[in-house]
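Local shape tokens

___
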Amino acid sequence: MLHFAPKAREVVRGRHDRIGMVTLSLEKQLVSVILACLLLPTLLAGWLGYGQAYDSIRSDKILLVGHVAEDRREALLDVLQSGRARAEALLVEVQARCSDRPFVRKTSCMAGILQTLIKSEKALGAVLHTGDLAEDVVVGQAPARFDALPLLGPDQLASVSPHVATGERTYFITASDAGRDMELAVVFPVSILQGVFAVPSDLGDSGEAFLADSQGFFITKARYPSVQGHSHPISAQPLRSCLAGQNREVLDQDYRDVAIIHGFRFIPEIGGGCIMAHVDQAEAFAPLTVLKWRIAALTIAFVLAAIVASMVIARRMVAPILALTQATRDFAA
């Protein structure tokens, strides 16, 4: 009996060691299972939520640029339509005040009304054609004859002068009476339109909006210096798409080769041209970077908390087994 007792104790001790190893392995398995149950659903929900937030912020920024371009289009058309309405009202005034006067006094009467018009409208000049006068009435910086101006299309409100290397560009609007016995053209400096394309606050620090002609040259001033749009046309693909008649919002480079969110609207009312609204992608999508880092920090914090929680839960679940193992060891001893 004394000879076999040490061997029996060694056998029992080996069994207890195996039980301890099994218990430790069980604890690790429980930690893994609990950790997976905590992390997988949460990380999946977080990933889906981040994807939706990313898409929402991205879409909102792109649509905002499109809204700015559309607002500028409506403002531009309002300026042109208001100018035509005032020109048509002036024709009514000319007929009422000047039509029954003698030739010399009629010309003087018309010229006086035109002078008042260009002063109030801050125009450069005006030319009035009427069938009962051999020569057109010209005031200020305007062509000597009405028919020297290019014809406007049926839906066209204005025409912009061709691009020149130096000097300010102009545009003119026309109006006529019902029988086309009288036709009026009023010439304006393009600087009048610049107020429509002031830097919009909605587009942040890098935003801009401008009007380009059908050849790709700037009509209103761009915010940033460039060669494109001045010495040669803008070659950026968004402007080319706009001049083809498209109205869209896209991500692409601009006339400076900078990554931009573009919103553009084709303007047939000036004979072909484009309103372009820009904002740098780096500024527009900055909230996405902040969101990404915040989610990364929250994810790391949650993973660490989940690891600690799973270890605590697993140990509490394994504690009775460890207690039983220890009791068995004590009994064997």
